[in-house]
Amino acid sequence: MPAAIAIRHVPFEDLGLLGPLLERRGWRVSYREAGVDDLSGPDLAEADLLVVLGGPIGADDDVSYPWLADELETIERRLKGDKPILGICLGSQLMARALGARVYSGQVKEIGWARLNLTDAGRRSCLAPVDETRVLHWHGDTFDLPEGATLLASTALYANQAFSWRERALALQFHLEAGAAGLERWYIGHAGEIASVSGLTVADLRDEAARYAAPLAPLAEQCFAAWLDAIG
Predict the structure, then answer these.
(1) Is residue 162 a contact partner of residue 170, using CB atoms and an 8 Å limit?
(2) Where are the extended beta strands (E) located within 9-116?
(3) Which domains are seen in the chain, by residue range?
(4) Contact 9, 57 (CB under 8 A)
């Protein structure tokens, strides 16, 4: 049975829709908790799949979160070894940083459901089902496209929303994994951030999720399934 390990930075940002899909396809799924568990161990470096999940911290905030050094080293080892790795939101930013790209604060926070525009490469990738589809975004930082990476998607606010690197690394700034059932935990956990954005309310986010989350779920599963097939 292949092993998938997810690095989780906050309890409510978990594998979401991806967890049950992995289990149905015969994967053994487990979590490592950032800031608590050892992120430098061989189990993470050698797992059949590593998923680096989202969280509200900065990808370059090593001073406040010194364990980021271990996490980055593990990500670098997997990228250099061409071992399957999926980065989501903070995870995508950490992958970009591990590949030598700049990660920095964006001009505005992108929180809510916005249309995803795929590049030509994106339309040929596992993300093809979500071209011009509204997906959940929840970030204030962004990154430059790493050297050698292939840009897959953009939005009106941020050009670099997804990239692939070599054959087995996929970075998503947005949240394909977030199903409607789990989002109430996000509204609680991110209450302070929501309140800090002028004009943004929990009621609006809840209404958007009611419109867009259910139609997105089967498309997201298609994307993840296609990527899992591609990595072998």
Answers:
(1) yes
(2) 28-33, 49-52, 85-88, 103-115
(3) 3-231 (3.40.50.880)
(4) yes
* Burial profile 130-140: b = 16 or more Cβ within 10 angstroms, e = fewer: bbebbbbbbbb
Average pLDDT on 100-125 reads 97
End-to-end CA separation in angstroms for the chain: 13
Closest to 82 measured CA to CA, from 120, 45, 109, 36:
45
Distance CA 49, CA 39 (A): 14
Q: Please give the Cα distance from 8 to 40 (Å, whole number).
A: 14
pTM above 0.85, yes or no: yes
> Beta-carbon neighbour count of residue 85 at 10 Å?
26
Beta bridge partners of 153: 118, 162
Q: 72-90 pLDDT, tens per residue?
A: 999 999 999 999 999 999 9
Residues with Cβ < 8 Å from 207, sequence gap 6 or more?
Answer: none
